[in-house]
Amino acid sequence: MTSTDLPAGPRPGPQDTAFFDDPMIDHLLRAVVTLTMELSVTRDRLRSLEAIMAEAHQLDPAALDTRKVPAAEERQRVEARTKLVKDVLGPMVSRLSQP
Amino acid sequence: MNDAMAFTPNHDEWSRQAFVGSLKQFINFTLEPKLHESYEVDLVPAHIAAGAAAPVKRDEAAALLEPHPLYKLWSSLTFHSQNLMWESVQRTTDRIIDSRIEQFRTLSSNPDRLGDMRLQTELLVKAPISTTEIHRQPGGYWRERRADDVEQALNYSGTVELYRNAKGMAADADARSGSDAVGRFIAASAQRRRPDLAPKAILDMGCGTGEQTLAFKRVFPDADVTGIDVARPFIRYAHAAAESAGVPAHFAEMDAGHTDFPDASFDLIVSNILFHETSRAQIKDIFKECWRLLRPGGLVLHLDVPYHPQRQSLSRQVTNNWQVRYNGEPFWTGFVEVDVKAELIAAGFAPDQVIAEYETAGPATYYLFGGSKAK
User: Which residues in chain A have their CB less than 8 angstroms from residue B152's CB?
Assistant: First the structure.
């Protein structure tokens, strides 16, 4: 069986249906929820990480507050922050750019 | 259960999926009750005070409810939570799909396998099922993107317990992920209704991932158990999961309304939430097929959603209808408007042998229907 023989599935339905009179409210609301989800994931991961390290006596929690970020790591962080801003605000820009 | 086919999110994937579960719980148990309360306490009294008659039809209630900001908030969040649910499970599936397909190939080619699997050469899914993303699952139940694909079933399996708990529909408060609690609930109901029944052959229609199918083999170990479904990825998944769990069961890609089993093949025919996912025309076909396949003295017992209009407030009917229009439940309203007893009788069941009742299990209520065939 080749990939062209494979059943394609039903036609995809809409993913961004709006229910408020101004669709931007829907987009902003969903951006907030998605960000909240990612914040929740990050908190969970941080808790797990700190628990594992503390259990292994590898973490002094006070050291976190005084650490200086190395330049290479900072560049990665900037890249990640830029992508995050684009992911959050990009859909709204796309929507408003439509004729 | 041996977990060769298990849906296994890593730390962040699980955290993301758990958040979606919490979000859905908030929507279902905090936001939506507020919406219904506003309808009863504010909107209807204000409507009457303005000189209008109280709404008596769903459309009249919708005209009051739909402009309300809470309704728009509920709609938008419900829609987005469904997007997030599928996106969050897809991340896990993308990471583990290759290994699960390898597991399927290993298990299904094992010469000592416990059960059989039959697939068709032509796709059996027909319109309107074939054109519908049930539950808004991207790709529907039957899309295949690679040889021996189980992707759609794996995604679905990742949502089952999340979705059930978010709806307050877990049959067992202690039900864990991967449990067969609903299948056991149906089996127990069958035993209560027909203590004399000792089935030798059981058919589970629309078996999906086969999770609940295995319950029937566990409850009736002497029976030959078969699960059928039109979604090929689910049949592959169900077969491999059963083999992995060491439970002898057979699975076949088959339309429940048009099977190729001989007349009088089964003593017990069951299904779990099949009927609200299919069209009214196919419901008639399935009942006829149940009657044809049932042995004298046998029992048919289907379980589905209890959302019949006479059991729902008008505002609840409005939100249910929203699910039909926007959230991948296109056959929900059609199913609850079917006169199940009349259709069962039309299919051949004697009026005094027909079942159509509600049963409660913990916080959940189910609709059970079917009937017996005289010996």
Answer: 9
> For the segment B56-90, what is each residue's pLDDT rounded down to a tens digit?
999 999 999 999 999 999 999 999 999 999 999 99
B245-278: b (≥16 Cβ within 10 Å) or e: bebbbbbbbbbbbebebeeebbbbbbbbbbbbbb
Q: Which residues of B touch A18 (CB under 8 A)?
A: 76
Residue B42 lies in a domain: no
Structural domain count, chain B: 1
Structure tokens at B81: 């939570």
Q: Which two tokens stand for residue B149?
A: 């694909």
Cβ distance A7 to B16 less than 8 Å, yes or no, reads no
CB contact under 8 A, A15 and B83: yes
Quick check: is B175 in a domain? yes
Domain range enclosing B253: 78-372
Q: Smallest Cβ distance to A13: which of B16, B75, B136?
A: B136
8 Å CB contact of B132 and A40: no
- Listed range (B177-186, B238-247, B349-358) with the worst mean pLDDT: B177-186
What is the domain-level CATH number for residue B352?
3.40.50.150
Domain ranges of chain A: 21-66
Nearest 5°: the CA angle B38, B43, B45 is 115
Which pLDDT score, from 0 to 100, does residue B162 have?
Answer: 79
What DSSP designation does B222 have? T
Asked whether residue B1 is assigned to any structural domain, the reply reads: no
Distance from CA of A59 to the nearest CA of B (A): 20
Q: Establish if B70 belongs to a structural domain.
A: no
In what side-by-side order are the strands of the sheet with B224-229? B117-118, B250-253, B224-229, B201-205, B266-272, B294-304, B364-372, B354-361
Judge: A11–B131 Cβ closer than 8 Å, yes or no.
yes
- What are B237-275's pLDDT values in tens digits? 999 999 999 999 999 999 999 999 999 999 999 999 999
pTM of the model: 0.90
